[in-house]
Write a structure and sequence with these properties.
Elements: H1 3-14, H2 16-54, E1 59-67, H3 68-73, E2 80-86, E3 88-94, E4 102-109, E5 120-124, E6 133-137, H4 138-144, E7 151-156, E8 159-170, E9 191-197, H5 198-205, E10 210-218, H6 224-234, E11 240-245, H7 250-291, H8 293-301, H9 306-347, H10 358-380, H11 388-391, H12 409-413, H13 417-428, H14 430-468, E12 473-482, H15 485-492, E13 497-510, E14 513-522, E15 531-532, E16 538-539, E17 546-549, H16 550-556, E18 563-567, E19 576-584, E20 591-595, H17 596-602, E21 608-615, H18 620-623, E22 630-635, H19 636-679, H20 681-689, H21 694-731, H22 744-770, H23 774-782
Parallel strand pairs: 4-9, 6-8, 14-20, 17-19
Antiparallel strand pairs: 1-10, 1-11, 2-10, 3-4, 3-7, 5-8, 6-9, 7-8, 12-21, 12-22, 13-14, 13-18, 13-21, 15-16, 17-20, 18-19
Subcellular location: Cell membrane
Transmembrane segments: 268-285, 316-338, 358-378, 433-451, 649-672, 705-724, 744-766
GO cellular component, one term: plasma membrane
Length: 783
Amino acid sequence: MHKLDVRLLRFMKKSKGQFLAITALVIVGLMFYTALSAAAINMGRTLKDYYHVTNFADIYVKVVKIPQKDVKNLENINGIKRVAGRVVFDVPLKVENEKEKVNVRVISIPDKDETINSLFMKEGAYISSEIKDVMVLEQFAKARKIKLNQILKLQIDGKEYNLKVKGIVASPEYIYLMEDEQSLLPEPGKFGVLFVSNKFAQQSFGFEDSYNEIVIQAKSEYDVEKIKKKLEKILKRYGVKRIITKEEQLSNRMISEEISQLKKSSNTIPLVFLGVAAIIIGVMVSKTVKNDRMAIGVLKALGFNNVQIIFHYTKYALMIGIIGAIIGTVFGMVLSGYMTKLYIQFYNIPMLKINFYYRYMFLAVFISSVFCIISGLLGARKVLNILPAESMRPEAPKVGKSIWLEKIIILWERISFSWKIVLRDIFRNKKRFVFITFGIALTYAITLIPLHQNHLFIKIFHTHYGTFQRMDYNINFSRPMHMKVINDITHIVETDKIEPKIEYPFEIVYGWKSKVVTVIGLKKNTEFYYFVNLKNKKIDIPKKGIVLSENLARYLGVKKGEQVKIKTFIPDREDIYVEVKEIIKQSLGINAYMNIQQMNTKLLDKKLITGVYLDTNDNVKEKLENAKNITSIKSLEDSRNVFKQFLKLTIFSIGIMILFAGILGFAIVYNATVMSISERRLEFSSLRVLGFTKKEIYRIISKENGIMTILGIIMGIPIGKYMVYSIMQAFNTELYTLDTDVALSTYVFAGIFTIVFVSLSQLFTLRKINGLDFMEALKNRIS
């Protein structure tokens, strides 16, 4: 082994604490990079394969009614590969607990396995009896513990049907099981999907030889949007309710957004850790070169040139990069497998495609090596200035200068001796002071992000389900009904308040952008919603015009006062232009709101409603269980409980983020403190001669770190606020809007965590102080 390599190994052993701390940063950074990148690719490929195997539909069309023969004729349209019709309705499922309201979506399938959106059999067999058998979606079956051959009781138009469970299946259409955009979160125990024969569905729902939904597969070389526009014209006479593409399909959209966020995270988080590691390495190598001045002079005198010596110190940095990269990528690849499995279980994909992507491993090693080599070269460049003859004697100590505080005599005389040492060291080592302070600020900022995320979810919960929505129950009808149905409901249920509503999908168009959303019609002075505009002022629903949620307005690029077109799919109804009267804050969901009278006049028929909101202490679910034309009864309390379960799941990920922020802060403060102790051995030895104990010297270092911690936290507040703003804006989606206003309590907790991280790193440096040979330091200086 080369003599310089032996020296390198000795140095690594001597500085193992610092070496491990910096390596930990590289490991965490590259573990994030490989885990998130590989998980995103695994998810994307698994999803693509699953969609291919099951022939996932490109277009979904909801109509009032279309004859079976006319569905087949759609295959003659250019660009369409396959077409299938089906009957789809939401109906109540009778369960043992009469107080519990469970809804299921009944979807018809052909006699043989469907060519579009084909089902993936998990357990059991295909339907054998057309009028008695049913297949159940796996998520719903698991949540309700439904077994094969179990009898399910369906309530269809007041009539009860008993169906035997023949199979448990997975569907590409319901990877992420949500009833609609208004549901926001999955409730697999409250909403499920059942697959029945065409014959049963058509007979039960009165759709003999006809359908109310069409699924279409397009030819790969054709533009889906152009096909969609053709379908709008051709199918208008059948009462088109909504046409959505594969990209707009709710389940696919949710999982696609998750994959997109994984990719964003894989490109940002690792850079923070690698960047900090590179800075620490650069500073550490620079300080080591300074301390090894005499040894470097000897090496040069023995014939080693500048390139060899610089490469010797750069190899230290390179060792950190390579070791950290290898461990980080291995852990990352293993973690990506577990992450993919968790995602697939959460999103219910019955296929699993996990690969080890060696290019990411090599890329991680390359990126890490580049970061570390550059930082090592920058740190070791001072080797060029060291001359063998001059380096034989110790470097002249720095000229002591008075700091500006000493000129304020009244103040300076009142400061204790130990505090004077602290202040002098801070002002005489400004670069080190700025570096540590900035590192603590970065730790504070990174800690702030998950804490804000946790506070934000809690805030969204209370705001959306307590302030924004104020109804006890949200009742939906199977079809639009006359407003007099409110009187029928009030005769069955004792209500405190009740209001009609319209929830209907329309396409909102502004310029070249458009979005199909649920437009909600409400009374002008509704008591069941509390609307606040972007200026935090309460507003009512205007008599004319439209109110848009913030995320919808942002997607369309529309502002208050501008005109948008409401494109209707309802036969014999013209598209209308309305003014955007207000843009409101809405944390969850994407909606537009209008006056119910305006919707009745311009978009639907007078006095027609699609449901009601009500407040009551009565047992609504039990009393309306057998009522006709009611598809769902949603309790706000049920939605709150689902969101609470979601909050529990986020605690783990938030804890992981705080842990990694702690590793970052620990590495920065520990390495900087150890370097400071090494540089100041003579100073601390002199203090020992003057009678200072090791504990008192430790207190001096603690005071310095305390000042830097306070300033770091203060500096970290604007940095953290900017990072929160950037990340929240990047991760905003159509379905939820993330607030960037950080609460005071979040700032406080981030400060407490930062102090804990700094204190832990401080405790680990105590061993370094106890291990210092103060007498040896004095001897070396005297000689």
